[in-house]
Amino acid sequence: MTDTKITLPESEIPTHFYNIQPDMPTPLPPPLHPATREPINPDMLAPIFPMGVIEHEITQERMIEIPDEVRDIYRLYRPSPVFRARALEEALDTPARIYYKSEHVSPVGSHKLNTALMQAYLNKKEGVKRLSTETGAGQWGSALACACKLMGLECMVYMVKVSFNQKPYRRVMMKTYGADVVASPSNLTEAGRKALTEDPDCSGSLGLAISEAVEDAVKRDDTRYALGSVLNHVLLHQTIIGQEAIKQMEIAGEYPDIIIGCHGGGSNFGGLAFPFLRDKISGTRKNLRAIAVEPRSCASLTAGRREYDFGDVAGNTPLMMMHTLGHKFIPPPVHSGGLRYHGSAPLVSHLLAAGLVEAEAYPQGEVFASAVKFAQCEGTIPAPESAHAIHSVIVHALKAREAGEKKVILFNLSGHGHFDLAAYESYLAGSMDLQA
Known about the structure:
This protein is α/β, with parallel strands linked by helices. The protein has helices at about 40-45, 50-60, 70-75, 85-90, 115-125, 140-150, 160-165, 170-175, 190-200, 205-220, 230-240, 240-250, 265-280, 300-305, 345-355, 365-380, 385-405, 420-430, and strands spanning about 5, 15-20, 65, 80-85, 95-100, 130-135, 155-160, 180-185, 225, 260, 290-295, 305-310, 320-325, 360, 410-415. The protein is built from 18 helices and 15 strands.
């Protein structure tokens, strides 16, 4: 095939989400109540999530239907294209064939809108008027702000302070969609005030921002909480990425040997990889490799322990079995803040423990060098998060060159870097902490 861009018509937008749980070799350990350490039931989650979201979280059905109202809005940007990275292949002088799923074409510039729209719909359906959430680099906050406006809901965003200060135009974007945005830790919640009392200069973390957003939700009858990664329902909603990619790779006449996605909480990696992993689990593609790539400074999968831990700093969430650096972990204030969560998706952790996926971690300097190379070859400036996947792609493409192997590599370009140019400026000026 000679096409550079592989597109699908709107009629090929998936009609169902794919749930990997029924196909996993062993069941996922259940979340536990923080006080009793007993498995939680759906009613315990009701103050935080609407029942529709809870049903998506706990379902064991393999395919979950996507409502027509949500599919109609998906038509604004889905199906997203798959590109063949020919210029990058040529620059690397590699026999590997590199493809990428381009999720940066969404209205908010990232894959996050896929689950934001579904969550906003489920909340609206049950009469919820307002959603609270956290955001790190701002991709999730922007997505939920947009989804809430499209669905007629109010939106409150607690943005990690270091990103709040470094990325002012992400704030502007969220406010343009009508959301309220505050720096976390804030004085609006007990969790925020406690953090500021302990450290007035606290730069914040996703775990702390989650504590504030959850507290906000449980204290108001009109509000529920929305999360952009980690939990089962979020990864479920993102599987439209991989389902489309399967069809597009068939059009290309290829099947990936290696699938790569950056990893913070796990949503874009799982969204691309899970539909393909069904083939690995069934035995039809035993040699398929799926690689989650994380920053060395917050390497939950490669440096964390797999154990029950809270999803937030204050310990308001259920305990989840996941790879974690500890819920009190405060990451260094670096630019690619979207990959600075202390834990990982329980589903990704479970698959890693089962040997079905792999994990890699790289320092920031190497990641940004690869991001610049990709931009100069392919034209798109990637988000710092996506740049981690790109660096791994380059590493494996060069290994293919050394071995003389014609590997097929597919990765997820989960977002553009147009709001992250301060990070690029820091790298190009040589002032970035390259070892982070």
